[in-house]
Amino acid sequence: MLVLLSRQALLFFYVILLAVIMLLHQALPLWYSAILLLLLLYRWPLQQSSSKVNKLKRINIIAALILLLLLISIRQSGVFHFMIQILLLSVTCRLVLIRQRHDSHQLLWVLYFLLACCFIFYQSILVSLLILALLLLTLYSHYQLYASKQHQLQLLQLGKAILITLPIWISLFLLFPRLQPLWRIPTAEAAVTGLADSLDPGSIENLVQSDKLAFRAIFSGSLPPRQQLYWRAKVYEDFDGRSWNVNQRFDRRQPGSRQSANPNIEQTVSYQIIAEVSNQRSLFALGMPVQYANSVRPASAYLVEARRPVSQRLSYQLVSELQAIPQDIALEQQLNSRTVSANPKTKVLAAELVANAGSTAGLIEQISEMFRQQPYFYSLNPPRLGDNSIDAFLFDSRTGFCSHYASATAVLLREAGVPARVVGGYQGGVWHEEQQYLEVRQREAHAWVEYYANNGWQRFDPTAVIAPERVLDGLDAALSADEQNQLQASWRRFSAFNYINQQLLHLDYYWSVWVLGFDESQQLNLWQQLKAAGKLLALLGSLLVAALLLWWFLRLQRQPPKFAAPVLLIRRYFGKVLVNKPAGQHFSQFIAELKTHNAANTTLLGKIDSLYQRAVYADDQQALLLLEQHLKQNAKTLAKLNWPEKQASAR
Amino acid sequence: MKSLKNLATRWFNNWLDKRQPKARVVTLTQKIIYILPSRFGLWYILLLILLYLLGTNYQNNLILLMSYMLVSVLLLALTLAWRNLHNITVSCAPVLSAYAEETLMVPVTLQAPLPRQQLQCYFYHQQQPAFTDNSQQIMVPLITERRGYFSLPRLTVHSYYPFGLFNCKSMLNLDYHYWVFPKPLATDAINSLGENSGNKNQLADDYDTIRSYQSGDSLKLMLWKRLARDPTSPVVKHAPSSPQPEPDWITIPAVSGAALEVALSKACYLMLQLEQRGKPYGLRINKKSVDPSCGQQHLERCLREMALC
């Protein structure tokens, strides 16, 4: 059956498809998006009829060519993106050719699927709301296809429909069982954010310029003191004279999970982290993690890593001990004692320091003293350093950021014979008292040193020596006014914008905790709580059923009766005899017939008939009352009225 | 294979007959409304499963939320589809007749307390369904083949509303019959079947002359098409002013098979012509005969006799 699509429906499909192409731009090469848009333009004056056969042939040839191009570039895009590209191609071609309602089925199907794919790329609340709006628009156009054109969608009905669907929707989300991932998802190449695998003297300064969120932390106990909030993300062990790199051993998977045998209860911190998209595996942890959530696994040097690169928000639970990190592998000390032949002045300085200091602790004290007493400065804009970067920093510029200090300290320690390494991560964060979470942005990126002493890797933060405000009050406190301005985007300076932005961030936080972070364990919790409250729920349910029944009953009563009052009366009192009255016969005729069979009651029947006629046709209230009286008085007589069986069967 | 299918169809029809016996007026209740997913509905369910898998695999709550939302839309569609058909009272016009090989437009009345959307009615699946939104009465086409007296086939009332995910239908067994008269077959020898061929020439003559209407002229002679075009000056066919002394008898010869059909068709044509001209005619079929008369009722009676012979 041929039902043509309306212009409005076509327009809606165009809008939705355009939005989807925009949203999925990450999965599409630029040339491909351009081709899709051109294809869409092909149909632009959305006319109904066209020489369809001709077009079909043309579109098929174009689609085949594009498919060929896509196949050639499949290497670059990866399987998942390829699938999205194919779907987009098919939906675009379908939309260009679409004429009838029947054609729109495939279109709708693919649109729904693509809208779901958008959620893989975006999970922030604003974009999610946009996608939801697109989904609703799709549903609306879908509805319009099968609804009468004359009928406007009524708000009341829509409200009722939402009232029906909402509880089902929410309870399905909360209670429907979830499966473990069934197969490995092909991940696409995407821009990596956060700390890189190599630490140049300038890399942290660049990172700090970014205002982007790195992760949020929620503590089940109280917030540990700020000096303890060193979030370890990367450990740099290879030094080439200028920059620090992550050792190869971090690429290997750590065998098994590392659960502590006897966790020291007093020193443990339990917390949940919601990590933002970084497209790398490394995650954040305080001190030594002893208990891991399912979604993460331990990595070398007591770090934590995700099972696959974090391409969407990831929430995980950890328990950490805030203490020195134990040795991970036997070779670790050796690995962190290697020195390079660059930076000769530093080597000399290290030898001097060793000679003065008796122990490792003394050495640390000496280094701190040096940074504190000699004119060293903490700055976001240090001068560029040459090849012997440590020498240039320690003896010439004396101005640097945390990475400079950490790098110089680690080299000094290594030259002095103490195993040492640079740790990259984040320090501190902004605590939101009302919402009870710690917000850690990229600007909180930090680098410090770990050296081996007393059977463990001790933390030493040279920045805390040179600029203690940085650790205690955050980055802003340690920087000059100019440097602070450099960090803040111009629009952030207006307090109103700032306020709104902060509120949006809080909303985003609740969104990620309640919607994005909802997982199996929380579901299990919910089920258990429901089970515990079973009796209460049963009570509530029965109350609800009772209320519904009551409502239904009241509604039934309020409905106007099907028949007028006198008719009902007659029906009640004449009961059996009335069965014999043929459908079309008038009541008076029936009474007349009755009279012939019941000679004794002629007067009574006549009276009833006349009262009935008056009550029904003249709307006479008094007649109605009289009729009721009469019927009541003579109920018994009426029940015994005769109707000859034979005649009834003969009719 | 084919016999198996036939068997299944027969079994299904019997089951339907038992479930909903014939009735003049049927109200669609829960018992006789059948809701099945359409082809698109099945694809939609596949989509739901795929989205669920995608959501669990990516551990993406938003995709899961979306798939659950679409599930609830599916359930909503189910309820709305049912409500769209529920409580409609279906009945039909009492007398139905058509000529063979003609499409009989059956006026079906759908009465509902609330407005319904996109209802479709058909008798056989291959035929174009009739659409209705608000109107109470719709004309459902029924193609007739042979002459005779038949009971109305099962009327299917169905709708894809909303979303086209479900085919919500009810197959009603309405207790009505319809007549199929022989197909009129134009014939020159207008009286070849009749015994009395007295005024053959005159009949042919006054066929194409017309004159203006004067009071007292039979309405049957009125040229209605012309009147619609020009209402001020009515025109009537020129009819012989003198009444026919003897009525025509139309006699069906005692043949059978194809010859009988042809004879009936020609007789039908003749009868209509005579009726149009307001001439009395009688009918003789085998041993039965209908006395000569004129008028719509008489015509109906004769046509029925011919349909049944």
UniProtKB/TrEMBL annotation, chain A:
Domain of life: Bacteria
Keywords, ordered alphabetically: Hydrolase, Membrane, Protease, Transmembrane, Transmembrane helix
Residues covered by the Transglutaminase-like domain: 394-464
Any single biological process term in GO: proteolysis
Listed InterPro entries: Bact_TGase-like (IPR052901), Papain-like_cys_pep_sf (IPR038765), TgpA_N (IPR021878), Transglutaminase-like (IPR002931)
GO molecular function: peptidase activity
Bilayer-spanning residue ranges: 12-44, 56-74, 80-97, 109-137, 157-176, 536-554
PANTHER family in alphabetical order: PROTEIN-GLUTAMINE GAMMA-GLUTAMYLTRANSFERASE (PTHR42736:SF1)
Record-given protein name: Transglutaminase-like enzyme, putative cysteine protease
Source organism phylogeny: Bacteria, Pseudomonadati, Pseudomonadota, Gammaproteobacteria, Chromatiales
From TrEMBL, chain B:
Keywords assigned by UniProt, alphabetized: Membrane, Transmembrane, Transmembrane helix
The keyword Transmembrane belongs to this UniProt entry's keyword annotation: yes
Bilayer-crossing regions: 32-55, 62-82
Protein's recorded name: Uncharacterized conserved protein, DUF58 family, contains vWF domain
